[in-house]
Amino acid sequence: MRRPLFVAIGLTILGSATALAGGVSHHWSYAGQSGPSHWAELDPAFAACSTGKTQSPIDIRTRDIHGQKLAGLVFDYRPGPLHIIDNGHSIQVNVDPGSSLRIGDKNYQLVQFHFHHPSEERINGQAADMVAHLVHRDSGGKLAVVAILLNAGQPNPTVDAIWSHIPTQKEHEADFKNVRINPAALLPTNRGYFTYTGSLTTPPCSEGVRWIVLKSPSTLSYRPVISSRAA
Hints:
Blueprint: H1 39-42, H2 48-51, E1 59-60, E2 73-76, E3 80-86, E4 91-94, E5 100-103, E6 106-116, E7 122-123, E8 126-127, E9 130-137, E10 143-152, H3 157-163, E11 174-181, E12 193-199, E13 207-214, E14 218-220
Parallel strand pairs: 1-7, 10-13, 10-14
Antiparallel strand pairs: 2-5, 3-4, 3-11, 4-6, 5-6, 6-9, 7-8, 9-10, 12-13
């Protein structure tokens, strides 16, 4: 089920969502005549938003999950300089090459991560305060997205650092070479997860995306410092 994601300052987030694939027009939105119920009407390339059979996000109902041994997740994330953009839909951090995820015998490279408030994913009907989507791509172009649920609690220095460097200009990447960001700092200690095959959650809603939803949430400040600086 698609639903609007609202701009909010105060709890944890400024911004909503982002397309996981590049080159997609920004003429869609989360409300009104360009909102989710109209996405498929905006562009023939967005047809899957209404006709797709495995669309995301979903509400994960644990009672419907049968025990199955899943492959372990091997994260090999490296710190790097902050490349940040307010793309008009969310705050996104683009990642230098070198960080990767292995799931069984499959390897994926981390490309970018971005945030949704509240979380798009629900577990037994319950959304988290926010979610970070870490977008990976394999050598054949297939996507795997790790969803890290985030709830208000102990400060998260990584999120605070990102939020204190949001650029003032939208759709313009700002580079902060002296600010080092390690995506591994977002990960919870417990790496248990739910998995399913779904879609991009924004136009063009393409299917065939491998979703990894971590069961254990991480935390972030209830009221982080939010400011903007020129790069």
